[in-house]
Amino acid sequence: MSELIVHSPGLSTTVQDTGRDGFYEIGMPPSGAMDQFSHRAANLLVGNPEGAATLEATYIGPKLEFTDSRIVAVTGAEAPLSLNGEPVPTWEAFAVKPGDVLSFAMITAGARPYIAVSGGIAVPEYLGSRSTYTLTGLGGLDGRKLAEGDRLPLGEASGARPGVRVPDELRPEHPSVTPLRTVVGLCSYRLTDAGMESFLGTEWKITKDADRVGYRLRGGKLDFVEREQPFGAGSDPANVVDLGYPVGSIQVPGGDEPIVLLNDAVTGGGYATIGTVVSADRDRIAQARTGDLVSFVPVDLAAALAARRDRRSRLDRIKSLVS
Amino acid sequence: MTTTDLVLPPARYEYGGDEFVFVEIDQAMSLEANFKAMTITAALRARSVPGVIDICPSNASYLIRLDPDVLHPAELVEQLRALEESATALTADQVLPTRVVDVPILYDDPWTRETLLRFRDRHQDPDATDLEYAARINGYAGVPQLIDALAGAPYIVTMLGFVPGLPFCYQMVPRDRQIEVPKYVRPRTDTPERAFGYGGAFSVVYPVRGAGGYQLFGIAPAPVLDVSQTLPDFRERSVFPRAGDVFRYRAIDRAEFDQVRAEVEAGTFAYRIREFEFSPAEFLADPDALNSELLEVLYR
């Protein structure tokens, strides 16, 4: 039986893929890899389709034992990797044999490593996806993060080759302040001009409330336009009549702690949302950690679509390296 | 033929990054705004537009999730504007095929009472229960009168969201009879599974245990989400409510609560459901008459 044996799970490691699409209307968030670029790149390196399931770790990587010969790649956050105690590179495909053990040292840059194994993690699909959504306990391995002693089934591997690496210029950067391109709008009319200026002019610090649901930020204060609240909204100036929240949207309950909603977020509610981080830059926030700084850079739809095309073309270049 | 013009401000179109389009029908809640959101989203669904991933009607707005590699968001907005222009009037022959559902609720139950007492420091009125507070600020003589009003008229499911299966419900009574309560000053970190809550002008049943900011009024014995899909009403979908459903939150006693819980545990519970052709125009013309008809259909 081809499996991956979990010697230690790391801090919070889950099975993720490109996400569970098509159920947002019932309140089901997409889940899926927070950093889609790194997830997809890892799959390409080991010869998987981009939608195959990988492992997403957070801050502390897992320790894993292989039970057969596979090709493996680790992308995303930078952490010294070793196989049976010998160093192996990140962003590069390498071969493993039965009994080999992969382990991680402390992360040196970024927050989330992605581990792809040729054949993919073959847990059962739930509503068309293997992504874990822990709040309702579905998808992934029994709907939860990995635990010591878990055994993860692997799929049938196709012919990948070791040694293929992603060149430095295609890898993500980890700047000291992460710029997040943002389409301003939704209910941004709730902020005063000074409030919007402050939102865009502040370098926001990521608090410890930063996970797959969302990132809560601190560093500035945003003023709302005074008004008589519309019927049904509730009395707080940050309240609106409950509406749908785009993934990546930013809300400001209380006016001083913006929250960026991410892959496992609530899909709707009654707080004013003031803009949305573009899909390509959700990859970047996924690699920012507690204590790091982020800033919001206003862009229009055309720039958001251009960022998306740029991510696609970088992935296509990786694809051409492996073929 | 009765025609009700949907007199609403022009909708506002916004891009939620590259993957979402948000359309605000109105800033205030009204059944007119919700019906307009339902009408436009139903028309969009009927078109099966390639690249549209999710169509999410909300209370007084709607949200579309799309794949911009297949459909340009600006092109989608063009289509939505055209649909809005054709949705300015509701005629009596426009009907929403819907389900009328009996949803039992144990109001003023011991579980939500225990929870709300733990979070008094986050509440507007620490010396009252949520029901006592809501009765007072809405001008009811006491909790029994408030419960009569909550259980008396049906609600329409105006939106699903927050977490899987959570129905936002808006009571089908004129504005002057709407119950309105604020959300907690700071959200609770705990809410019992299946709690019946109320915030702004909306009631909800919480599908899972977790955080929440709505006032706590009771608890439902039957689930709205069944991930294991064992109950008969959940065989096809893990989520029971659908936007446009009509729910009657009927007050039950502890004996009936325990009975329904036992049926749920045994896997035999099924909601009482009646199909109904709902006419928004007819409803807006005479809400009380249509509500009586709905309840008559439900219990006959």
Write up what this structure looks like.
The complex is a heterodimer of chains A (323) and B (300). With 323 residues, chain A is an alpha+beta fold. Chain A has two domains: 3-172, no CATH class; 177-311, Cyclophilin-like (Cyclophilin, Beta Barrel). Chain A has four helices and 20 strands. Chain A has helices at 36-45, 193-201, 279-286, 301-322; strands at 3-8, 14-16, 54-56, 63-66, 70-78, 81-83, 86-88, 94-96, 101-104, 109-117, 151-153, 177-184, 204-210, 214-218, 239-244, 249-251, 259-261, 268-271, 273-277, 293-298. In chain A, the strands form four sheets. In chain A, strands 12-19-16-17-14-13-20 form a seven-stranded mixed beta barrel. Chain A has a six-stranded antiparallel β-sheet with strand order 7-6-9-4-1-11, with no helix packed on it. In chain A, strands 2-3-10-5-8 form a five-stranded antiparallel β-sheet. In chain A, strand 13 (204-210) and strand 14 form a beta hairpin. The mean pLDDT of chain A is 95. Chain B is an alpha+beta fold and 300 residues long. Chain B has two domains: 3-90, Gyrase A, domain 2, CATH 3.30.1360.40; 97-299, Beta Barrel (Cyclophilin), CATH 2.40.100. Helix content of chain B is 30%, strand content 26%. Chain B has eight helices and 14 strands. In chain B, strands 7, 8, 9, 10, 11, 12, 13 and 14 form an eight-stranded mixed β-sheet that branches. In chain B, helix 4 (130-137) crosses helix 5 (143-152). Chain B starts with a strand and ends with a helix. At the A-B interface, strand 15, strand 18, strand 19 and helix 4 of A face strand 2, strand 3, strand 4 and strand 5 of B. Chain B: InterPro entries: CT_C_D, Cyclophilin-like_dom_sf, PxpB. Chain B: Residues 11-232 form the Carboxyltransferase domain. Chain B: GO terms for molecular function: ATP binding; hydrolase activity; transferase activity. Chain B: This is Carboxyltransferase domain-containing protein. Chain B: It comes from Amycolatopsis acidiphila.
